[in-house]
Amino acid sequence: MIFRRIVLYALLVGALSGILLTGVQLLQVIPIIQSAERFEGEPAAAPAAEKAGQAAQAHDHAAHDHGGHEHDADAWAPADGAERTGFTLLSNMLSATGLALLVLAAMVASLRLNAANKLDWRHGLLWGVAGYAAFFVAPALGLPPEIPGAAAAPLESRQAWWLFAVVCTAAGLAGAAFGKSPWRWAFLILLVLPHLVGAPHPHTEMFAGQPPAAAAELTELARQFIGATAIANGALWLTLGLISVWTIPRILTPSD
Amino acid sequence: MKNQASTATTMQTATVSTTISKPVQLFSAFLLGMVFLYGAGFVQTSAVHNAAHDVRHSLAFPCH
Predict the structure, then answer these.
(1) How close does chain A come to B1, measured CA to CA in Å?
(2) Do B64 and A152 touch (CB under 8 A)?
(3) Local confidence pLDDT in tens for the 256 residues of chain A
(4) C-beta neighbour count of B10 within 10 angstroms
(5) Which among B27, B37, B50 is the nearest to A75, CB-wise?
(6) How far is CA A210 from CA A40, A116, A218, in A?
(7) Cβ-based contacts of A21 with chain B (< 8 Å)
(8) Owning domain of residue B60
(9) What are phi and psi of A34, to 5 degrees?
(10) Which end of chain A, N or C, is less packed with Cβ atoms under 10 Å?
(11) Counting one residue from A and one from B, how many pairs have CB atoms under 8 Å apart?
(12) Is the CA virtual torsion B3, B5, B9, B12 positive or negative?
């Protein structure tokens, strides 16, 4: 049963690329997050009314602007150090497995469409680049990767735009790559669409609640963070694409 | 007896794989992937958010 083999190999691909991603993040992404967190909670703690609202679970994120900070102080969080790293590793493996499921299902579907049964490492690179473009570059162009504490538009609208950007970019690339009509390149218009619509942005400065010196330091951290996440996500998609291609002949056994 | 049981299991597996079409299986795997990503990146329950916090920032998922 091909579903079962896709899931098993997605777990393998997700575990391997999740471990590698965690290693890369520990070198450059996580230190920046921790530096930014030192500034959090210093200027203005979340108003008591907001906390009470969260505790009551009747919290409506869309109804008000958080100014970028909404941690529930009473909620469980992993302790800094090994526990936090452990949950980061677990979340990375979960995310990478989810991405691997999408990629493996799409790879098998593309092979059926083209009546082909082979992918080599160059296809792996191309799939990796396409995944990187759809899941990182396209959403990050509108909503740059943010360090904790940065002001942002309401969460729901950003999640919706993120999803819109990812779906449009993936559909545009897939249409151009696998379409049969001579007009298939027109699918690339979909890549521009989310940016014409425009990502939701806050009306305030990014670090408005901070004193000028801290805001300058945070702005510099935010700049470094974009480079660090660009590298980490590149490493993720490179391994994801290459390992996925390696599993394809194992997923497509002769018995099917 | 044991042999019979394993034959029965094999037959059952064979029946299942012929009754669910390939496109449905591929679509199911795709949906499962979206469920995983939703769990890791989008669920706003505080405990889940805190556990996956650094990953969400790193993968450029909208977080806070």
Answers:
(1) 26
(2) yes
(3) 899 999 999 999 999 999 999 999 999 999 999 999 998 765 544 444 333 334 433 334 333 444 444 556 678 999 999 999 999 999 999 999 999 999 999 999 999 988 777 899 999 999 999 999 999 999 999 999 999 989 999 999 999 999 999 999 999 999 999 999 999 999 999 999 999 999 999 888 888 888 999 999 999 999 999 999 999 999 999 999 999 999 999 999 866 5
(4) 10
(5) B50
(6) 9, 57, 9
(7) 58
(8) 20-64
(9) -65, -35
(10) C
(11) 152
(12) positive
User: Does any domain span residue B64?
Assistant: yes
Burial label, A115 (beta-carbon count in 10 A; 0-12, 13-18, 19+) = exposed
Task: Work out the minimum CA distance from B7 to partner chain A, whole angstroms.
Answer: 17
Domain spans of chain A?
A: 2-40+82-251
CB A243 within 8 A of CB A19: no
Using the Cβ of B59 and the Cβ atoms of chain A, whether some distance falls under 8 Å is answered with yes
**Cα–Cα dist A6/A209, whole Å:** 48
pTM value is: 0.84
Chain A positions touching B16 (Cβ under 8 A) are 1
**What token pair was written down for B34?**
């979206």
With CB atoms and an 8 Å threshold, state whether A99 touches B33: yes
Nearest to A228 by CA among B52, B62, B60: B60
- Joined tokens for residue B29: 């795997």
Domain-embedded: residue B11: no
What total number of domains does chain B contain?
A: 1
Distance CA A17, CA B59 (A): 13
Closest chain A residue by Cα to residue B33: A98
Q: A138: distance to nearest CA of chain B, Å?
A: 11
- Is residue B12 assigned to a domain? no
